[in-house]
Amino acid sequence: LDPQSRRDLLSHLHQEVKQRGVTVLWATHLVNEADGADRVLVLHRGSLLADGTPSEVTSALGGPDLETAFISATRPPLQKAAA
C-alpha cells in the first residue's frame, strides 16, 4: 500500500477494534506500525523476546524507540560486538 492508504487502513482498523471490542492480530516487519498497538509481541527466530505495550517493549529491549530496540535485540551477535 502507498503511505496514505496504509495510514487510512490502520486508522480504520483501530476504530473498528474499539467500536466492536475485537482483537486484530497484525504481523509486520514495519515496526513503526506497532507503535499504535495496544499490545506488542516481539518474536525472533521462534522465541518471544518481549510482550507488552509499545513503551513497555521498548524499555524491556533497551532502546530509545521501538524500532531501535527491535533492531538492537534482533541483531546477530557478531554485529552487536562490532557496534
Shape: elongated
Coarse structural class: alpha+beta
User: Which range best describes the helical content: under 10%, 10-25%, 25-40%, 40-55%, 55-70% or over 70%?
Assistant: 40-55%
Beta-strand residue fraction: 5-15%
Strand adjacency order, main sheet: 1-2
Report Rg: 14 Å
Average pLDDT over all residues: 89
- Low-pLDDT runs of 5+ residues are none
Beginning-to-end CA distance, first to last residue: 34 Å
Sheet with the most strands, sense and barrel status: 2 strands, antiparallel
User: Strand-and-helix sequence, N→C?
Assistant: HEEHHH
Record field, number of beta strands: 2
Number of helices: 4
Short note summarizing the structure:
This protein has 83 residues and is an alpha+beta fold. Helices cover 49% and strands 13% of the residues.
Your description of this structure?
By secondary structure, this protein is α+β, with helices and mostly antiparallel strands. The protein has a domain of 50 residues. The protein has four helices and two strands. A two-stranded antiparallel sheet has the order 1-2. Helix 2 packs across helix 3. The longest helix has 18 residues.
Give descriptors for this structure.
alpha+beta; 83 residues; 2 strands; two-stranded antiparallel sheet; single chain
What's the topology here?
Blueprint (H helix, E strand, L loop, with lengths): L2 H18 L19 E5 L2 E6 L1 H8 L4 H9 L2 H6 L1
Antiparallel strand pairs: 1-2
Helix pairs in contact: 2-3
